[in-house]
Write a structure and sequence with these properties.
The protein is built from eleven helices and nine strands. It is of the alpha/beta class and 249 residues long.
């Protein structure tokens, strides 16, 4: 767990997507967001400093994070941000009523529910790609670099070292998302972001108006899954700063 600038009162939570880490989130985002915030940036299981710990579920990850926040006297978050798998974990954290989140931003967050067929298909694809990556490390790195630039190499390394049961559990979590019941006020604090080319957008357009009618959704035209935050970190963080400012106002 990275806990930076502990002397600051306003707290920002950043939860990384699959294959990234707390360290990479810090390098990519905190300089652009600014030094006036305290940053809580966890490593999810099977990632970063916790790479040896198998990933079990988003519920367990949120429980660990919730305990950390309360143990350190944090009951309010100026911004809570979760990308992809990190967004699924953040949804579970919102189920707790003793942490006030003033702005919750989700990038490429799955909202699929009870998608058994999707779980089977995605799990099969990921396991197949994982085994290919293990056999040919250099090819995996080149492919990831084409998709995500300089972050691609470290993402490929994480994909190679992650165990297959963790991959299966992550796929399951993203196909069977447990959407917490949120009040109108809490929904208004939520912003869901998706690339126009990503698969999860289809479910978001169907599910979010029904489950969270007061939340906002924005679409990044021409971008794939989590590609906007990788391609333009400065612009992306400026957007997050504007969200914080609008929330404060």
């Amino acid at each position: 767990m990275i806990d930076a600038h502990q002397d600051k009162k306003k707290v920002v939570l950043l939860i990384h997507p699959m294959l990234l880490s707390a360290k990479e989130m810090k390098l990519a985002m905190t300089d652009y967001l600014g030094g006036e915030f305290r940053y809580i940036i966890p490593d999810l299981s099977a990632h970063g400093e916790r790479s040896e710990e198998p990933y079990e579920s988003a519920k367990k990850e949120s429980e660990r994070l919730h305990t950390y926040l309360l143990d350190h006297g944090i009951e309010e978050l100026t911004l809570a941000f979760g990308a992809s798998l990190g967004g699924v974990v953040l949804l579970q954290l919102l189920a707790y009523r003793d942490i006030k989140v003033h702005k919750a931003v989700f990038e490429g967050c799955s909202v699929w529910q009870h998608a058994k067929a999707l779980d089977c298909i995605v799990r099969t694809i990921f396991i197949h790609q994982h085994r290919k990556a293990v056999r040919n490390r250099s090819l995996a790195i080149r492919k990831m670099a084409r998709l995500y630039g300089e972050k691609g190499a470290s993402m490929a390394e994480t994909f190679i070292q992650i165990d297959e049961q963790s991959i299966k559990n992550i796929c399951h979590d993203c196909a069977f998302v447990n959407l917490p019941v949120l009040s109108e006020e809490d929904q208004k604090a939520c912003l869901f972001l998706y690339g126009s080319k990503e698969f999860d957008l289809w479910a978001a357009k169907k599910v979010l108006p029904k489950e969270y009618p007061h939340a906002r959704m924005r679409i990044w035209d021409g971008y794939g899954h989590c590609a906007k935050m990788s391609a333009d970190s400065m612009g992306y963080c400026n957007m997050l700063r504007n969200e914080i400012a609008n929330s404060n106002s």
